[in-house]
Automatic annotation (TrEMBL):
<keyword id="KW-0460">Magnesium</keyword>
<keyword id="KW-0560">Oxidoreductase</keyword>
<keyword id="KW-0227">DNA damage</keyword>
<dbReference type="GO" id="GO:0051213">
    <property type="term" value="F:dioxygenase activity"/>
</dbReference>
<dbReference type="InterPro" id="IPR027450">
    <property type="entry name" value="AlkB-like"/>
</dbReference>
<dbReference type="GO" id="GO:0032451">
    <property type="term" value="F:demethylase activity"/>
</dbReference>
<dbReference type="GO" id="GO:0006307">
    <property type="term" value="P:DNA alkylation repair"/>
</dbReference>
<dbReference type="Pfam" id="PF13532">
    <property type="entry name" value="2OG-FeII_Oxy_2"/>
</dbReference>
<keyword id="KW-0234">DNA repair</keyword>
<dbReference type="GO" id="GO:0016787">
    <property type="term" value="F:hydrolase activity"/>
</dbReference>
<keyword id="KW-0408">Iron</keyword>
<feature type="domain" description="Fe2OG dioxygenase">
    <location>
        <begin position="107"/>
        <end position="204"/>
    </location>
</feature>
<dbReference type="GO" id="GO:0140097">
    <property type="term" value="F:catalytic activity, acting on DNA"/>
</dbReference>
<keyword id="KW-0479">Metal-binding</keyword>
<dbReference type="InterPro" id="IPR005123">
    <property type="entry name" value="Oxoglu/Fe-dep_dioxygenase_dom"/>
</dbReference>
<dbReference type="GO" id="GO:0016705">
    <property type="term" value="F:oxidoreductase activity, acting on paired donors, with incorporation or reduction of molecular oxygen"/>
</dbReference>
<protein>
    <submittedName>
        <fullName>Alpha-ketoglutarate-dependent dioxygenase alkB homolog 3</fullName>
    </submittedName>
</protein>
Length: 206
C-alpha cells in the first residue's frame, strides 16, 4: 500500500538521556529524513572549511577534521592575545540556528562546524567550558551524514556513556554537562561516510 505524504510525519519527541550530573536531550528526527542529504550537501559546498593545526610540545599537527566558525560580529573571542572573528552567517546556517532556538528556547550567536571526512577523522576528549560560554552553557549539536559515536566521560568516576548521533539528530547539552563530563568523537578503523556536525553556542563578551 502506498503511504501518503502526510503519514510520513516523523516523531520529534525528545529523549532525556539518563545520565547523572548532566542535562542531555536527544531528538532523533530533528530534521526530517527527506531534508538531510540536501542540507548536508549544501553545508559541504557552501561553508569555508579550513584545515586548522595544533602545536603540542613544539610539534605541529593537522587537526583530524575540517572546521569552520560562523557567527555574529560581536561573538569574537580572545585567544592567545588575538581576537578571533567568526565568518558572517549564511542563509542555511541561519535557518538551522532558528530551528535550534525554537527547540531549546535559547539564543545562539555562533556555530562551530566540523567536517569528519572519514573514520580517521575525530575529536579528542574535551569540555566546552571556556569562560566565554558562561556557567551552564546551552549547546545545540546537529548532525548530518554518517552516524558517529559521541563518547561522554565523567570527570569524577570512570563512567563512560556512548551516544550514537544519527543523521538529522539534535543533541541539546545543558546544565552541568560541560562542568561534570568531557566528550569526544572516537576515530574508527571502519570506512565511514562523511559527517558534518554543527554546535550552536552563545558567546558572552565582557
Ligand atoms: O562532532 C560532534 O558531535 C562533537 C563536536 C563537539 O564536541 C564540538 O564542536 O565541541
Ligand atoms: Fe564539544
Amino acid at each position: 500500500m502506498q503511504q501518503s505524504l502526510f503519514e510520513l510525519q516523523y516523531d520529534n519527541t525528545p529523549i532525556q538521556l539518563d545520565m547523572p550530573d548532566a542535562d542531555l536531550k536527544y531528538y532523533p528526527h530533528f530534521i526530517p529524513p527527506l531534508e538531510t542529504s540536501a542540507i548536508m550537501r549544501s553545508l559541504q559546498e557552501s561553508l569555508e572549511w579550513r584545515q586548522e593545526q595544533i602545536t603540542i610540545y613544539g610539534k605541529t599537527f593537522d587537526v583530524p577534521r575540517l572546521q569552520a566558525w560562523y557567527g555574529d560580529e560581536q561573538a569574537g573571542y580572545q585567544y592567545s592575545n588575538l581576537t578571533m572573528h567568526p565568518l558572517p552567517w549564511n542563509p542555511i546556517l541561519l535557518a538551522l540556528k532558528q530551528r535550534c532556538e525554537n527547540a531549546s528556547n535559547s539564543h545562539f550567536n555562533s556555530v562551530l562546524a566540523n567536517f569528519y571526512r572519514h573514520g580517521q577523522d575525530g575529536m579528542g576528549r574535551h569540555a566546552d567550558n571556556e569562560p566565554e560560554l558562561g556557567q551552564q552553557p546551552v549547546i545545540a549539536s546537529v548532525s548530518f551524514g554518517a552516524v558517529r559515536n559521541l563518547d561522554f566521560y565523567h570527570n569524577k568516576n570512570k563512567t563512560k556513556v556512548r551516544v550514537p548521533l544519527a543523521d538529522g539528530s539534535l543533541l541539546l547539552m545543558r546544565g552541568a554537562t560541560q562542568k561534570c563530563w568531557q566528550h569526544g568523537i572516537a576515530k574508527s578503523k571502519k570506512t565511514l561516510a562523511p559527517r558534518i556536525n554543527l554546535t550552536f553556542r552563545y558567546i558572552h563578551n565582557k
